[in-house]
């Protein structure tokens, strides 16, 4: 029924060869997070230093900066953390054996679970935005009629 799983050297080699790419993507996620936080700081500075268009409220810049910070956490920082944990677990497989392999696969599962939930949430937001845009267009169109 349940036979013990034995990982071959080739399978271990494939797993270890993915580690640098996983680490690369994690580092890129951290760099992207830093850029998004930097952009939000510029938005905060823009709200503090004044605006080119006085009709734009200061709260708009603060709100956009805050949205950028929150988005950077969900889009980049959390996946980056999950990927770096997976990469470090992969590097322990060769020396620690079955338990390390199970840990690496569990961390990979966590990343893909997050990616799946994130995708579902983003699709739901897209649908809500489409409904909102349609509703706004319908409302705006009816307001323009005499």
What is the string of SSEs from the N terminus onward? HHH
Percent helix range: over 70%
Q: Could you give the distance between the termini?
A: 76 Å
Averaged pLDDT: 86
Would you report the number of β strands? 0
SS class: mainly alpha
- Summarize the biggest pleated sheet: none
The low-pLDDT segments are: none
Question: Can you count the helices?
Answer: 3
Silhouette: elongated
Question: What is the subunit arrangement here?
Answer: single chain
Strand content: under 5%
Cα Rg: 23 Å
Task: Write a structural description.
The chain has 146 residues and is an all-alpha fold. 87% of the residues lie in helices and 0% in strands. It is built from three helices and no strands. Helix 1 runs antiparallel to helix 2 (58-96) and helix 2 runs antiparallel to helix 3 (98-144). The protein is elongated. It starts with 8 loop residues before the first helix and ends with a helix. The mean pLDDT is 86.
List keywords for this structure.
146 residues; mainly alpha; 3 helices; 87% helix
Layout: helices, strands, pairs:
Layout: H1 9-49, H2 58-96, H3 98-144
Helix pairs in contact: 1-2, 2-3
How is this structure best summarized?
This protein is mostly helical and 146 residues long. It has helices at residues 9-49, 58-96, 98-144. Helix 1 runs antiparallel to helix 2 (58-96).
